[in-house]
Amino acid sequence: xxxxxxxxxxxxxxxxxxxxxxxxxxxxxxxxxxxxxxxxxxxxxxxxxxxxxxxxxxxxxxxxxxxxxxxxxxxxxxxxxxxxxxxxxxxxxxxxxx
Length: 98
Description:
Elements: H1 2-11, E1 20-25, H2 35-45, E2 51-56, E3 67-73, E4 76-84, E5 89-97
Antiparallel strand pairs: 1-5, 2-3, 3-4, 4-5
């Protein structure tokens, strides 16, 4: 999740009128993260005073390409989900203009 958070922070002000995507391979304990763990990681690395409209969809965690978390961060909509490959799993983030 740290890589996803870094990507959000580095790209929140870029291409404000475009939708951008990023995915990163899950490592070690990230593969077993539940919704509470993911939220804790997000709030650890992102400035939580800049997060608004935070919504979780716990029924969609571990679902292929389903959005499990949405929030706004510095005026951008961020959606986070998971992608499951044959040998590795990924977290992805989609950042949309408001």
